[in-house]
Predict the structure.
Amino acid sequence: MRTRLAIKAHAILGRVFPERRLFLRSETDTRFIRLKSETQFIAFTGSALVIAWTIIATAILLMDSIGAGNFREQAKREQQTYMARLNALSMERDARASDALAAQERFNSALERISVMQSELLGSEIRARELETGIEVIQTTLRNVMKTKKTVEAEYAELKEAIETGGSLPGQSGMADNETVDLLASALERTAQERDKVVADAQQALVAADEMATELRLMEEKNDAIFRQLEEAMTISVTPLDKMFKAAGMNPDNILDKVRAGYSGQGGPLMPLSFSTRSGELTDETKRANRILNQMDRLNLYRIAASRAPFASPLKDAYRFTSGFGYRWGRLHAGTDFAGPHGTPIYSTADGVVVHAGWQSGYGKLVKIQHEFGIETRYAHMSKIRVTKGQRVSRGERIGDMGNTGRSTGTHLHYEVRVGGKAVNPMIYLKAAKDVF
């Protein structure tokens, strides 16, 4: 069976590739090379395979070249789009920085204005109390003057009656007529002078009382205007701070209680008003002033709390936002990356204590700062560290320079915020503070 198949296959190859002889002739001899059908078939098949492989390889190279060109063009377009987006973000960031600076200036101006208004308010309250006391004294004096006036008028009427009837002075007897007349005239003149003086004093007291009442009314109107301005200032200043802490996931009341616990002393310009001139009860104005002072106290506590939470930006110079918080290739990127020139200053984002300043695997040169409320910030890949462990730093204080140390592919700052040891998105705090700081 196999022999038949071999014979048949050889016959087919013989028809397609007939046996050929290749003659090689020289001057003295002639030789030939016999090319069998099988040899021709193998040569043809090999040549076809080589040609096919050449064609396929060339096509692949051409396709790769075309694809690489398209990919490069696409990469260039994406890079241009990315750069345009980065430029837009940079411009937006600069605008936000300008707005934040303006908001900070408005905030400081409001604090100064509130302080001045508070001083005026306290002075007005003291002056109002003095005016109320003066009016009461005048009213008491006026009542005494009126009693004296009635007494003098009674004496005057008695003396006048004695003169008209020709009798003697009250308590006098056995005196001559001339002496009696002279004594009566002198007594009448003295009584008339006392009466005129009492009337003048009474009129002067009434005028003074009217002037004081007018001044008190004007003072109350001025105080009401100051109250309204203070209430508006408190609303404008406190409301954004409330929103800022809530946006950062922090309970404002709990935060203020913690700050208040650290500032439990008494005294200073924010003491509640307690004086009163009306039966020991606080007036409506005093209650209103105390409510404003409580709001001012809340604002002051907010100011302290805001300086101890990482609401500030770690960079003040120009930078590019290169990577955000979240998972990358299955691993958590626990912070936010900001790229900038080598040596760009890095600043603390809140008041705190440096708990680490040195090298740490992956982070390179790293600074850790422990803040209030269980918050810790980390600043990685620095080229230079400018603080030491245990050092207390303030918000905005320079702590190092941007670099490329550790596991890093380029010069940038890796910035982390951890609450209770757990990493959170730093942009939560930066976005929450964009309209306040």
